[in-house]
Every structure is written in C-alpha cells, then in structure tokens.
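During data preparation, a discrete fold description was generated, as reproduced here:
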Amino acid sequence: MPRSVSGVEMRKRQAAHIEAPPQAPGQPRPNTCCLCWCGCCKCLWNEDRIERSERQTCTKMDSIEAVEEQQPSLDEVLSWARSFEMMLRSPEGRQVFREFLRSEYSEDNLLFWLSCEELKKETDPVVVEEKSRIIYEDYVSILSPKEVSLDSRVREGINQNLAEPSNLMYEEAQFQIYTLMHRDSFPRFLNSSVYRDLLANRRRTCLDT
C-alpha cells in the first residue's frame, strides 16, 4: 500500500518550488494556472500566456501608429485649394473642413450633405424611409437645433416627398447646402489657421524628408 505524504513533507516540497512568500489562506496565488500546481510564474503555460499578451499589445500599438501616420500629402492638401469637390471627396479633407466648420458653428451643413450622400446609396425601401425620416428630423425640421438653411420652395418639396420617400428626395436641398458651403464657408476655410497650419506642416515634412 503506498505511503501517504505527510503535511510536513508536502510543505517542504512546496517550499522548494515556491520562491515567493506564502499567501494568506483562501487567497489565490498570482499567475496560478490549472497546469502548474506550485503557482509559480515559470511554467511553460504561463510563459506562453505572457508572450501572447505582449504580441497583442504590440499589434495594437502598431495599429495606432498606422492610423496616426495616415496624414494627407502636400499635393493632396494643395489640391483642396483648387477644388472644393476634391476636398469633399477626401476623407482627410472632410475631417479638416469639418473641424473648421465646427469653429463657425456650421458643422451641421456638412453632416447634412454627408447624410444625403449615404441615403443615395440605399436601395432598400425600408431603410430609405427610415433614413429619410431621420434626416428630416435632424436637419430639416424647424424644431431641430441642427436645422440647415433651406429656402421655402425646397423645404415645401421635401414635405411633399415625405409621403413617398426616395433615396433622391433631398437632392435639391443637398445641392443648395453644397453651394452654400462652396461659396461661403470654403473661401474662409482656405484662409483659416486650420488649413494654413496643416499646409505649413506638410511643407515642413517634405523638407525634412
């Protein structure tokens, strides 16, 4: 019959493997895994777990750095001054222009234009109806704090189209806001510190490289 291991012998074996001070009764040991009875941090399972965690951290940091490095080139920034349309089609351009509009409390013009662009892509009647209603409540309704400036004729046309909404029902209103941004906000944007600082930064970057 096999000899039982006494409590004293068990404690000696544990002491030979555990370098850290004993834990209070009832408290789990740090870094303890089900494959390592001694609770040390030197088992292969624990080393593999730490290595995986470090790889995941590096991957996240690489992703963050990649996003931070996605800056518009000097040529692209210069092209915005030549074409309002080109700036609107650029994600970076829209972001910078939106920052400027926010400083003038007219960011809603761009958000309305973008919402209309998204609506044009929809073909599902249910989605079209829902998005049309949201756009109306957010940017057309006189009760909305984000109401954009539309003339009475265009507004009346939208009200009539609400009965049978389509993905193009805001096309005329969108063009009116587009024209407003192009003629009014865009020239001020090109003379603003937002654009000029970005342009100077891109030029410095080109000289440094």
Notes: The two ends are 80 Å apart (CA to CA). The chain has a mean pLDDT of 79. The chain is about 65% helix and 0% strand. The longest helix spans residues 44-69.
